[in-house]
Structure formats: C-alpha cells, structure tokens
Amino acid sequence: MNDSTVKSNSGFIVTLDRLATPIENIANFLAGLAIFILMFMGAAQVILRTVFNTPIAGYIDLVQLAMASMAFLGAAYCQRLNAHIRMELFVGTLKGRALWAFEIFATLAALFIIAVLILYGWDHFVRSYDSGDTTIDAEYIVWPSKLLVPVAFALWFFRLTIQLVGSINMFINPEREPVGIAKIQHVSEVASDEIKETFGTDMPDEGGIKS
Amino acid sequence: MSEAGSILGIGFNDPFTVGLIGLAFMFVLVLSGVRVVFAASITGLLGLVELLGWGPAAGIIGTIPHSKSSTYALSVLPMFIFIGFLAFHAGITQQLFNAARKWLAWLPGGLAVATVMATAGFGAVSGASTATAAVFSRVAIPEMLKNGYDRKLAAGVVAAGGTLASLIPPSAILVIYAIIVEESVGALLLAGFLPGFVSALIYGGIIVLWALYRPKEAPAMEASTWPERFKSLPGVSPIILVVAIIMSSIYYGWATPTEAGALGATVVFLLALFKGTRTKTIVQALMESAKLTAMIFSLIWGVLIFVRFLGFSGLPEAFTTWITNLDAPPIVIMICILLAYAILGMFMDAIGMLLLTLPVVYPAVMALGYDSIWFGIIVVKMAEVCLITPPIGLNCFVVNGVRPDIPLSDIFRGVGLFFIADVVTIALLLMFPEIVTWLPELMRG
Fold first, then answer.
1. 93-122 in B: which are within 8 Å (CB) of A?
2. Which residues of B touch A123 (CB under 8 A)?
3. Where does the pLDDT of residue B236 fall: very low under 50, low under 70, confident under 90, or very high at 90 and above?
4. CA A32 – CA A26 distance, rounded (Å)
5. Which of A15, B107, B129, B238 has the most Cβ atoms closer than 10 angstroms to its Cβ?
6. pTM, two decimal places
7. Which residues of A touch B294 (CB under 8 A)?
8. In this predicted model, what pLDDT tens digit does every residue of B61-100 receive, in sequence order?
9. Nearest-CB residue to A42 (from B69, B79, B89)
C-alpha cells in the first residue's frame, strides 16, 4: 500500500483498511489461541482419562462451543489475505475495467449472502438467548457461541465493503494504484505464500538454498 | 412445495429442474470468480427460496454455519492444521532424510528413493502436500544435485513426494471427506495409511527402474554400513511417536481423533520449543492455522447450505437413478468419474473440487455398490495427482518457488514419471480395494 503514489480518493479506503486490519488481526489471533487451548485441553483430557481415570467434565460440550471461535473469527482476516478459495482460471486472464467489473460482481454477491447470514444468524442467536438453551451434557449456555456468527460475519462484511469500494475505485480509473482490494494471484504467487507459511521467519540454512 | 415455488419468478415448480438450474448457476458463479463459499451458499439460499419461500429458506440457512461448524468430529481439523504448520520447526526433516539416505542410498536411484520415503515420513507428521514439497525442496534437492542427479528427476520426486502427505494420516482432506459424506473420521484416516505407503513404494519402484534404464540421471552411491544405519534411527523417533499416537489411538479407540491430534500436536509443539523455535514463529503458526481453519470451515458450511438445497431438489437421487440405469458396468462408470475428476482437478483447488462435486457424485457411487471409505481414498488420491499436473499443479510451483534455478517446464517434465506411478497406484486400488479397506475392517472387527 504505497500512499505516495495514490492520486485519487483512495485515502478514504486506506483509512477504512487501517481501521479494520488490527481488529481482524486480533479476531484471527483469538481463533489461533482457541486452537492452542484446544490442543492442550485434548492432550490433558487423554492423559487425565487414561492415566488418572478422571476426565475433564463436559469436555466434548466445551470443544463444540469453542468450535465457533475457530470457524468464524478468522474469516475476515482470511478474506483480507485472499485465502478463501476461488477459481481464477477465467478472471485471472482479464485486465482493466473488465477485471474490476467481475471483482465488483463477485464482491456484491459475497456481501449479499453475508448480509443474509448476519441477519438470520442474529435471529438464531436471539432465539438461543431468549430460551436460554444449554448443551446436553454439561449444560453450558450456548448463546455466546452463536453470537460469534453475526459478530465475525459483520467484520467480514466490513472487509468486503472495503474491497468493493476498492474495486469500484479501480473500475473508475484502472490506472490508479490498487488500494484495499484482494489481488488475483497467479499460481506462482500462491506457491510463494505457501513457502513462506511453511518456513515462517525461521530460515535455517538446511540445504544451501539459492535465491 | 409448488405453492411456494416461483418466488424468484423463474417459474419452475419442479424441484429437480430447480436443482439442475441451481447446479449450473453455481458453476457459472464459480467460473466468474465468486469465491466457492459464496457461490455455494448463494445458490443454496436462492434454490431454497425458490422451493420453500424466503422466510423458511433464510431461516434454515441462518442456522447452518453455527450448527454445522459446532460438531465435535470437525475439531480434529485445527489440530492437524496446526501440526502441519509446526512440523518444519520441529526440526525432524533433516534427520528423516539422513536416515532414509543411510538405509536406501545403495539402491539404483537410491537418493531419490530416500527422498520419497522421507516425504512419506514427513507426511506422517504433516498433512500438507505443499508444505512437504517446500521442505524437501530445501533438504533433498541440493543433496541430489550434489550427487549428480538430473534436475528434472530431483525436482519431480520432491513435487510428487509431497502429495503423499494427503493420504498418510494426519490428513485434513480425508477428514473433510469424512464430514461431508458422514463417514467415520477415524476409519478414513486409518484407511489412508496403506494406500499412502503403497504409493510411496510404487514411486520408489519406478525410480529404481528409471535409474537402471538411465543410470546417468541417478548415479549410484556407496552403501552405508549397518552401524551407520542404526545410528540414524534415534533422530526419527519423534515421528514414530507421533505416528504411534495417532494410529494406535484410532485403531484401539483409546482416544478420539481430536484427542489424538491434540496429543500429536503437543508432541510436535514441544519438539519445536526444544529446537529453540521463537515465540514469534509459534504465534505465526497459530495465525496461519486460524486462517486456514477459517477458510476450510467456510467451505464446509457454504457447501452444506448448498447440500441442504440439493436435498430438497432431489437432484442427487435423480443423478443416482440415471447413473445406475446406464448400460455400462460399474467399473467403466467409475473410470469415467475418475477421468472427470482428473480434468476438473487441472483447473480447481483440490478441496474445492471435492466439496462441490461430492454431494452429487457420492450417492451415485454408493448406489453403484462401491465402498464409501474406498471411494474417499480414491478421490483424495485423484485430487493429489492434480497437484502435480499442468497448468496449475501447485506442488510444482512450490518447488520452483524454493528453487527458482530449476525451470517450471523441467519440474513438470520431471513429475511425468510419478504421474505414471500414480496411474499404476490408482489401477491397483481399483483392482485390489482391500489395500484400502483392510485396516478399517480390521479395526471394526
């Protein structure tokens, strides 16, 4: 995101992007934390049950309730980093306005379904809250878990809105510096992301890589 | 149903027609670049609206993301994903490759055979094909080149070896298959073990044959002594531990797949800590795991919204009736289905392809009398083959990304040999389904 070369109203998009990014990062981190806790809890459960014969009470209920945080909190972060699967075979060949027209269409489609899911996911939560339903075994309350759907999807909706504005901005003038959009990646770029994700920041010289 | 019909003004009251239009509509959306999760869920929503009316349709789909994600069986996925991102940092790759080399280098093409076995071993800790290819591009390719191996072969064996990770447990894609078709996750994971091993053996066999035919491309190496071989074994003990935890827990049932995954992840995590992995790297692995988990769960609930609509439309039943009434033996139909997957896989991501096609294809395959676990292994193997075929064979691009000095065209040519090996493997699995079903049946007694 190179601000100095932007000669359009993209300052607005940059502001929105800067607002959303840290929230998305935190949400995704919370999902990661849930994975981390689930790992220790699972290991503890096996050891406590098999060795000490004292399993954690309501373990399965707890895992099921925690699933929502892992499933949904990272969705907007994933959208920003362009990690939700799409088929780029056709769109990847497009350039200029045609490309941005397709991007606008794809983003509008996404906004529509996420809006529906926020509204009706909220209803699903409200029903649970009003009735005070609990899990079967340990009788934990369910509504906080259901609340994660509209909350996480609202974040997702916000990110999609930024991308929509970004795409419209590019449609108006394809020469502009792309801001706030999910760039279509070539397979080689996907591959280089995969490589970075595998090795992380640790790059020990195991085999004399030439780069 | 007919009263609610036509709400969208399409005017079709026949659920089957709506189903067919829905299917076509979804593929148009996917082709125009709409992300798979949105394409599937929009089609599911609009189809249900056409069949049931807005209120009931939106009400149904509003509950699906939460209810379908909050299942205990799915909780194994984040565990396997986290193991995948940590596996490299546990520092077992170099020891694994060394051990494989000590034991196998005496064979014709021995270093390449050792690479195959090391990728299979790494696959027993990680379920990620691309990560396996990336890791061994750095560990094994330099060794092979140093010993005078042809670079096409060296790159090809790493790209192809990476695909073994998806069959050998832990495997995320097998879990996804199990969830979508409502099979036992444990049975699928167990079933993948032997076919993964057979695939590795066939890769090894074809390398030996190739090295005998073209010795210059894979020069022979000196055999290691027996003491040297045994000395290499302690380095791979963590892998044996993780495999023992995951396989024995599923087989003997002393832990659920999630618990086994959690225990395996804890072992790999402790190893990574022991190797001096920094907190920053661990946090990064967690962020990546959360991202991939969100991606996969989105696909799952998106496709399950679509599946709900398909269920109302009766399309899968109609397709099943059509397939079973075809005047062809089941094996011919199966081969046609596999060919269709091979073509589709050239243009689509493996997980996306499976999720979008299984809701329609799976019931038909079951009606033809095939075993559901067997079919899972076969389609996952097909999806993996697509990771090494042009034009978008991701594993080849990964090898090229780590080794930009080896041109992509050479890598694609290098995997040709392993493509043939995969065809042999699939033929074997077709002829001897016991390779797949033996272990799960043994478990079930």
1. 93-94
2. 59, 62
3. confident
4. 10
5. B129
6. 0.86
7. 28, 31, 70-75, 77-78
8. 999 999 988 888 889 889 988 888 888 888 788 888 999 9
9. B79
Q: Which residue has the tokens 């790992």?
A: A39
pLDDT in tens, B116-168: 999 998 888 877 788 889 889 988 999 999 989 999 999 999 999 999 988 88
B298 Cβ partners below 8 Å, 6+ apart? A71, A75, A78, A84, B37
What are the residue ranges of helices labelled H in chain A? 10-50, 59-72, 75-80, 96-131, 143-172, 187-199
Q: Kindly state whether A41 is in contact with chain B, defined as any CB-CB distance less than 8 angstroms.
A: yes
Residue of A nearest to B392 (CA): A187
Predicted confidence at residue B12, as pLDDT, reads 60
Residues 14-33 of chain A with CB under 8 A from chain B are 28-29, 31-33
**CB neighbour class for B412 (10 Å; exposed up to 12, middle 13-18, buried from 19):** buried
Residue A141 is classified by DSSP as B
Are residues A192 and B71, on separate chains, in Cβ contact within 8 Å?
Answer: no
From the candidates B45, B81, B288, which should be mutated to test the interface with A, based on the most A CB atoms within 10 A? B288
Assigned token pair, A154: 């609202």
Residue A166, both tokens: 């970004």
The pLDDT value recorded for residue B4 is: 44
* Assigned token pair, B251: 């087989």
Backbone angles phi, psi at A114, to 5 degrees: -70, -35
Q: What's the pLDDT band for B352 if we cut at 50, 70, 90?
A: confident
Give me the DSSP letters along B33-77.
Answer: T--HHHHHHHHHHHHHHHHH-HHHHHHHHHHHHHHHH--GGGGHH
The predicted complex's ipTM stands at 0.88
**Tokens linked to B211:** 């090295």
B313 touches chain A (CB under 8 A): no
Q: Is B155 on the interface with A (CB under 8 A)?
A: no
- Tell me how long chain B is: 445
A71 to B65: CB separation less than 8 angstroms, yes or no: yes
Candidates B412, B431, B438, B403; CA nearest to B134 is: B403
Put simply, whether A141 touches B (Cβ < 8 Å) is no
